[in-house]
Amino acid sequence: MKFTADALAPLIAKGDRRALARAITLIESSRADHRREAVALLGQLATVGRAPVLRVGLSGTPGVGKSTFIEEFGLQLTAQGKKLAVLAVDPSSARSGGSILGDKTRMERLSRDPNAYIRPSPSQTHLGGVARRTREAITLCEAAGFDLVMVETVGVGQSETLVSDMVDLFVLLMAPAGGDELQGVKRGIMEMADIILVNKADGELKSAAMRTVSDYAGALRLLRKRPQDPEGFPKALPVSALSCTGLEAAWAEMQDLAGWRQKHGHFERRRTEQARHWFEAEVREGVLAMLQTDPALRAQMHTLGAEVAAGTTPATVAADAVLQKLRAITQS
Questions:
Q1: Last residue of a domain, one of 49, 67, 88
Q2: Of 7, 147, 177, 305, which cross-links 2 as Cys (Cβ 3.0–4.6 Å)?
Q3: Burial class (CB in 10 A: 0-12, 13-18, 19+), 291
Q4: What's the pLDDT score for residue 235?
C-alpha cells in the first residue's frame, strides 16, 4: 500500500484498518514529503460526510487504572454494536525519545475486538499530555466510521489540559483516597473536567471510594458554574473497572451531557472554537519549524543564541532580530 493521499483516502472512508494505521503513521512523520501527503489526505477526508462522532478525553494519575477502565468500558460499548477508537498517548523519554507503547498489551481483549481500534502514539515530549498530531488522528478515525473516539492522555499535571481543546467531553479518572487527595489535584484540571470517575470502588476500597466521590462532589459545587453545563454537572461518580460496576451509569451520564450540549448549541460552538484554536496552533508550529529548517534563520539563531549565552546580547534584542529576519523572508 502506498503512503499517498490518493491511495489512502478511499480506503479509510471504507473503514480499512490497515489504511487507517498507515495514515496515522503518515501524519506522525516529520518528513517533509510525508507532511505534504498528510495535509492532502486530511483535505480529501474533509469532504467525507459522517454523523457527529463523540470525542472523549480521559486523563488520570499513573496507576489509577486508565487502561483497565478503557478496556472494560470499551467492551461494553462494542457489545452494543458501537465502534470505538482509542488513541493512547504514551510518555516519551526526554533523553532517548523512546516510548514503551504498551497499551495494546494492557488492553489485550479490547485490541482483539473487531469493533475496536487501539493506536498507541508517543508524546515525543509534547506538552499537554497528547501527541502533536493527536487531533489529526481523531479526524482520521472519524472518517473511518467510528462512533466514539477516546483519547487517553499521559497523566495529570499542569500541562495535561490540551486534550480538553480537542474533545467534546473531558473525563478525569481518580483513585480512592482521603480528603488530602484534593490538594494534589490542580484547580485548572478540575475546572475542565466534565465528569470525575473514582475508580476501584470495589472490595475493601469501596467505602473509601464513596467518601472520595463525596469529597469531589463537594469541591465541584464550589467551582463557578459553566454555561455549557446543565444542572448537576460537572459531577463525580464511583466506578469499578475490575467488577465492571458503574460503567453503564458513566456512559449514560456522558450521553446525557453531550445530548444536552447539542440541543442547546454548546456542542457545535465548542467544536468551532476548537477548530480555530488548532488552526492558530498549527500556524505557530509552522513558524517554529521555519526557524529550524530555513538555513539563514537557523544560522542566525545559532549565532544569536551563542551571544545570548555569553551575555553580550540581551535575549529580547536577539529575539527581535530573528523576528525581523523572519518578516523579511516572508515579505520577499
A1: 49
A2: 7
A3: middle
A4: 94
